Amino acid sequence: MSARGQRRIDEIGDESRRRILDAAEELFAERGFDRTSFVDIAERSGISRGSIPWHFKNKAGLVVAVLERAIDRAMPPGLYKSVPPLTEVFEDSATLVREGNAGLPFMILTEAIGTTGVVHAQYQDFFARRRDGLELWLRVQRPEGADPETAAKQERAFAVALHGTLVGIHLQALIDPDGFDLDAALRSISAMVDKNLADVWTTPLTPHRRTANDRKARKRAD
Fold first, then answer.
1. What's the start-to-end Cα distance of the chain, in Å?
2. Do 49 and 74 sit in the same domain of this protein?
3. What is the reported pLDDT for 19?
4. How far is Cα 98 from Cα 174, in angstroms, rounded to an integer?
5. Which residues constitute the domain of residue 26?
6. What is the pLDDT at residue 35?
7. Which InterPro entries match (predicted)?
8. C-alpha span between 99 and 138 (Å, rounded)
């Protein structure tokens, strides 16, 4: 086969794969992945049912491919390697919430919670990448003279807290989009981070241990 012929075959294969992924993404967002069959995806995509396992092996492989594409849109390479203002990062987050099937990863997450396997592992990787990205964003701003080991622990804790806040806001916006002002919520988080950023490296991570006196005081207040 000529090189030109092989390129054409590859192009057809890439187009088929894209159409399958587009259809699967739409259907997963509409019905969830448990209630979506290869037959449904074939009908929506216009690609034969037999082509789906040829491209993705099985349903788990297709779910992972859909997730990978959605995650790549949410976290383009190099997102945190510079130091963009948090308002810029959050604006991108707000755009993702509003456009297309932005809620798809979280919808699949609700079906995957409590399970094991490739989908669960994919979410572990996604959350780890987001936390690592936020840690990197903090690390490039680390003040000179900070103890590296202590600073790394504090940056990790702050990244986990910030990531959890963003996930919570994202989920609220998907479940109740008219219940609050998404932009105002993200601006509020950005302002709080800007105000307290220096504390990341100066405030020790000492756990609060509730004492017997604390508990008694709480009971009296109740």
1. 81
2. no
3. 94
4. 9
5. 1-56
6. 87
7. Homeodomain-like_sf, HTH-type_TetR-like_transc_reg, HTH_TetR, Tet_transcr_reg_TetR-rel_C_sf
8. 28
